[in-house]
Amino acid sequence: MTADLTELLDRSRAILLDFDGPVCSIFGGHPAPLVAAELLNLLDVRGVDLAGDIRDETDPMEVLRWSATLGKPELTREVEDGLCRAELLATQSAIPDPYGREVIVAARGAGRPVAIVSNNSAPAIDAYLQAHRLAGHIAYVAGRAYAQPERMKPNPEPIWRAASALDVEPAACVLIGDSLFDIEGAHAAGVPVIAYANKPPKVQRFTDAGADVVLTSMADIATALLALTAER
Prior knowledge:
This protein is of the alpha/beta class. It folds into two domains: 3-25 and 95-231, 3-Layer(aba) Sandwich (Rossmann fold), CATH 3.40.50.1000; 32-92. The protein is built from ten helices and eight strands. The protein has helices at 3-10, 32-45, 60-67, 73-90, 100-109, 122-131, 157-166, 180-189, 202-208, 219-231; strands at 14-17, 24-25, 95-96, 114-117, 140-142, 173-177, 193-196, 213-215. The chain has a six-stranded parallel sheet with strand order 5-4-1-6-7-8, sandwiched between helices. A two-stranded antiparallel sheet has the order 2-3. It is elongated and about 60 Å long. The protein starts with a helix and ends with a helix.
């Protein structure tokens, strides 16, 4: 735990938390490459030319983004619907991230409301939170806008939406995320960002991207929040 982390959390009024990564691995038991392949097959069946790198794409979110470039909203909606179904199925075997639950509970204890800000669909997030008895600790869920992948992070819109729902100025929030999209989106929204480097190569990547704090364990955040609770 660093002094920078303690100071950042101390001056925060709300916690904005990415979902896939800091809270759980949503595709931990239902692999993302399988979902991406299913979405690509859907497009292939509809006669879409899967030329170039997209044919080998393993990230279902990127397949959704790509579908929006086709200029056929009905196809984007089909991909969206397929992804939503896959995410709901995936929540049944999602793997909780170590200390993700502890961070959520400790944040509430420290008087910091928590909002989920995610590129995953809200129904899937809600299903996971209910199944893991976390729904009561979450004040708001800003999930993926339906069939509008351009509004996903790094677009700051969902971050602003969450801050507004909590009635907290963006600069008084802190975003915890595990991707460059989280860092880029937080910067665009004017929100400080704690980058969770859950894989070793991410540490330097996140540092270079200008994250306010880079951590390799969510336990550090939980510990710092518990210390704030003790001071109340």
